Every structure is written in C-alpha cells, then in structure tokens.
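Now for today's protein:

——
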Amino acid sequence: MISIGMFAGADRAILWRGPRLQRSLEQFLADVWWGSPDVLLLDLAPGTGDMAISVAQALPNAELVVVTTPQPSASDVAVRSGLVALQVPMKVRGVVENMSYFDHKGERLRIFGEGGGQRVSEQLSEALGYDVPLLTQLPLQPEIREIDESGRPAVLNPDGTLASSGLADSFKNLAETLMR
C-alpha cells in the first residue's frame, strides 16, 4: 500500500491537479516495487476529474469498480463517476454498495436508505450499453473501523489466518467475483 499521506503527513491537505497529480501517479506506479501483483487497486476520490483521466492514460488495461452508498445523493455521484468510462478507455466492472444495512438485535436497519447500488448498476448498464452488475452490498459494521485502524485486513484474523465472518466472507466473495 502507498498513499500520498505517507509523504505529506496526515494533517495536511493535498492539492492534486495537473502536472503534480500526473507526476505523483507516475511515481506510485513506477518507483514503488509492487512485485508481480495480479491486481493493483487504486482507491480514487469520488466524482470525476484529472485522476481518472491520468489513471486511464497510465494504465490502459485499467477497469473501474464504482462504490456507492444507498442514498440517492451518493448514487447520483457514483453514476457520474462511472460515466467517465464514456470519455476514457475504461470498462466498468461493477458496483459495490457500502453501508447497505446494519444488523441490530435481529433487525436489519437500512440507515442510509436502500437501492443506491441497484440504481447505479441499472443506470450505468443503460448508459454504457453492457451489463454493469451490482457485485455486493456490504453491511455497516463498527468492527470494520476497528479492524481498519489496527492496520489488519478485514479478511484476516489477528494471527494472519483467513477470517470467517459475514464481513470477511463478503470481502472474499467480492475479490473472487472480480478475479473471475
């Protein structure tokens, strides 16, 4: 993993545009030893802009996974993010809906509403002219924040073995789906 925050510090705002963005992306891709990964995952800020164009130019085989949350305002932004595929040579592989529900004492709560991922999937499928599936709906789980802040992947137990939980299984299934 590499992040611009590792260089600039977590307390600084990063203004990434134009030549600076291009050079930072080139450094991340060329100067970091990645080994021989099957997949290189880039987590980009929501919306459209310079970064999506730069990634498409630097990685001609790049594909896009659009992440949204259930509420309409977020899914509208996610659709616009996916539509960048019309302007750069990039295929949209699918949609992930994050924070879809919260299971509490046997009741499934839809805190942020529902249907955002499906809306994004349908709108992108229609606009792009091919199937853009809803790949998964991930639950809202406070444990993911704790796991994330510990620096441990959600799919691993503290001893490094594969975890078996609803959340870990969701992430493993998503990864397997994308690899197929």
The longest strand covers residues 91-97. Helices lie at 5-8, 18-30, 50-58, 72-82, 116-128, 142-150, 166-179.
